[in-house]
Structures are given as C-alpha cells and as structure tokens.
Amino acid sequence: MTVPTGRRERKKAATRQKIADAALRLFLEHGYDAVGIRDVAAEADVAVTTLFSHFASKEALVFEQDQDFELRLARAVTDRGPDEPLIPALRREVLALVRHCTADGAAPIRRLVDGTPALREYEESMRLRHAESLATAIAADPGLAQSTTACRTIARFAVDAYSLAREAPDPEAALDEIFRMVEAAWEVTRPPRHP
Q1: Is 113 within 8 Å of 159 (Cβ atoms)?
Q2: Nearest 5°: CA angle at 124, between 118 and 130?
Q3: 105 falls in which pLDDT band (50, 70, 90)?
C-alpha cells in the first residue's frame, strides 16, 4: 500500500483502514449479506457519510486495496527501467500481488468472495478496470509501439494471470508457465525489425 506522507493524509489513511478492518471483521463473523453499511460505520465508530467518503460501495470495503493494486500494475509499466522489457516487469508485479493475496490469513477472505455473488461480480468488474488501466499505460509507452488490441490483450492476460496463479496449488510455478505464454504472445505482436 502507498504510504501517505502528510499528517492529514496519514489520518485519512488510518480512518480508511479502520473502516476496512471493521467491515472485514463483521463480514467474516456474520456473513457479507447479513451486515449493512450502518453496521460497519457503527463498528468503525464513523458516520455513514464518512464511510462513503472512503468507499464508494459495500463491495469496495472487501477490496480496500483495489486502487493500490491498479496503480501498481500501471507503475510496473511506467516505472520500469529504460532497458527493462515489459513482460518481466509485469510478471514481477503480478507475482507480488499473488503473494499478497495468498499469504497467511487470506483464505477466509477468498472464501467470502467466492461464496458471495455480489463480491464475485464486483471482483470481475475490478479486474476489467485494472486491465483497461494497464492497457492504457502500455499504449502510452512510446517504446512499446503496439496496437490498441495488442495492448488490451496483453493487459488482460496479465490480470488474468493473477487470478489463475492465485488459484493454483503452486502459484509461482503457474505464474512462470502463464508468463511464458504471455511473453510469446507479446513477441508475436511486435512489429518486424528492419535491418
């Protein structure tokens, strides 16, 4: 998660985290559908308006690091070294996200998401948004010179690699296999080099 620098930003981040923690605790204890927004606000000791100033929806409470993940994917493109190839940079960031989401303590959250249709639907829309954001970052890089279709396809592959690897018995081995295919797909779309 991006660390806020100023006092006000740190206070806002602490409030946001307090709300997210309270929501997750209630959802895991009572079930997502049994807990309302007012319950979360009361548990976090904030007003409902404060809750909504930090989270756009009830579903967003479960995916509180959504914006950070989206930003990290885009930065894997924009912040990589001038000679660093795209696909290894994406693989490294996706691996970090997979490790975060398969760490100890993540299994109950995964079960909550998998068992709740509204959360599965939100997660799918989130993945599509992340892929579009990543595709935009790839397309904006003048050194990559790819078609819009190629950028969107590689971005979808990278975001889907996260989901597939996260569910695999050996996430890192799955990611290696997936990114070999992503690398091959990326190479096929590259314009021919003229001598």
Answers
A1: no
A2: 135
A3: confident
Distance CA 189, CA 195 (A): 18
Q: Is the pLDDT of residue 143 over 60?
A: yes
**CB of 68 closer than 8 Å to CB of 74:** no
Alpha carbon distance 64, 67 (integer Å): 8
CB atoms within 10 A of CB 81: 7
User: Do residues 129 and 70 lie in contact, with contact meaning Cβ atoms separated by under 8 Å?
Assistant: yes
Q: Residue 108: how many CB atoms within 10 A of its CB? A: 11
Is 174 in contact with 168 (CB distance < 8 Å)? yes
Q: Count CB-CB contacts under 10 A for residue 16.
A: 20
What distance lies between CA 49 and its chain's CA centroid? 25
Other residues' Cβ atoms within 10 Å of the Cβ of residue 100:
15
- Position 142 scores a pLDDT of 78
For residue 170, what are its two tokens?
Answer: 């050996």
Task: State residue 36's pLDDT score.
Answer: 95
Residue located via tokens 């009830």 = 58
Instruction: Tell me which residue has tokens 């959802």.
Output: 27
